[in-house]
């Protein structure tokens, strides 16, 4: 990740390539700049956020790889589009894992999106297991349509794949009502009976009522 780092776009500026709102190089869905046959990808390139539909420069390795594949495919003569990002991230600090996908409550308010927020505290395993670690999940739901538009998770383990699952849910336009009905697995050494993401969805539904 590249938090606090500004994209070095001097080469593009010198070449007369327009810079976007994020101060990164402006690109279209083909990762092409305003100059025909000139492409930009990675930490210096702007793209579009799935939820806000506004320009974003996430500066993530996962995004750079996908953008590079799109640009390379187009350069090779096969039509390919980069459809945007949720800017899904995970990190670890000592024994704490943290992750996010979609937009936060703050970003939703800034973009004047009516939301409902739900937060649950759970465990990574059945509570009676001595190695069970805490897990806190927050969901951001668009009030008007009940679609899931963001999530943040902090816990002792098992954060990455839950963030990935919620990212898939957002991309497939799953509603929180759908998530509350999710068919999930259970085994005491690995998870709680009630999947915490499902519990968070149930709580969001209660607020929506």
SSE order: HEEHEEHEEEHHH
The CATH topology name of the largest domain reads: FAD/NAD(P)-binding domain
Global mean pLDDT: 94
Q: What is the general shape?
A: elongated
Q: What's the number of extended β-strand segments?
A: 7
Strand order of the largest sheet: 3-4-7-6-5
Distance N to C terminus? 39 Å
What does the main sheet amount to? 5 strands, antiparallel
Give me the Rg, rounded: 19 Å
Helix-strand makeup class: alpha+beta
Under the CATH scheme, the architecture of the largest domain is 3-Layer(bba) Sandwich
Helix content: 25-40%
Could you name the CATH homologous superfamily of the largest domain? FAD/NAD(P)-binding domain
Number of helices: 6
**Beta-strand share of residues:** 15-25%
Outline the structure in words.
The radius of gyration is 19 Å and the shape is elongated. It has 209 residues and is α+β, with helices and mostly antiparallel strands. It has six helices and seven strands. The strands form two sheets. The chain has a five-stranded antiparallel sheet with strand order 3-4-7-6-5. Strands 1-2 form a two-stranded antiparallel ribbon. It folds into two domains: 10-75, FAD/NAD(P)-binding domain (3-Layer(bba) Sandwich), CATH 3.50.50.60; 89-208, FAD/NAD(P)-binding domain. A hairpin with a 2-residue loop joins β3 and β4 (96-102). The protein has helices at residues 10-14, 61-75, 105-110, 160-171, 176-180, 196-208; strands spanning 47-48, 55-56, 89-93, 96-102, 115-123, 134-142, 148-155.
């Amino acid at each position: 990740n590249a938090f606090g780092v500004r994209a070095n776009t001097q080469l593009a500026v010198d070449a007369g390539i327009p810079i976007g709102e994020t101060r990164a190089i402006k690109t279209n869905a083909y990762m092409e700049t305003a100059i025909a046959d000139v492409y930009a990808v990675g930490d210096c390139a702007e793209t579009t956020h799935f939820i806000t539909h506004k320009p974003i420069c996430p500066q993530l390795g996962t995004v750079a790889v996908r953008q590079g594949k799109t640009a390379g495919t187009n350069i090779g003569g096969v039509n390919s589009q980069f459809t945007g990002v949720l800017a899904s991230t995970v990190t670890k600090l000592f024994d704490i894992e943290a992750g996010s996908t979609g937009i936060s409550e703050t970003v939703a308010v800034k973009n004047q999106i009516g939301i409902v927020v739900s937060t649950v505290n759970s465990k990574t395993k059945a509570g009676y297991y001595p190695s069970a670690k805490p897990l806190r999940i927050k969901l951001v739901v668009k009030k008007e349509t009940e679609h899931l538009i963001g999530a943040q998770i902090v816990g002792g383990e098992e954060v990455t794949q839950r963030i990935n699952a919620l990212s898939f849910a957002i991309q497939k336009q799953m509603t929180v009502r759908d998530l509350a009905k999710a068919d999930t697995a259970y085994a005491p050494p690995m998870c709680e009976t009630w999947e915490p993401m499902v519990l968070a969805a149930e709580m969001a539904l209660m607020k929506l009522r």
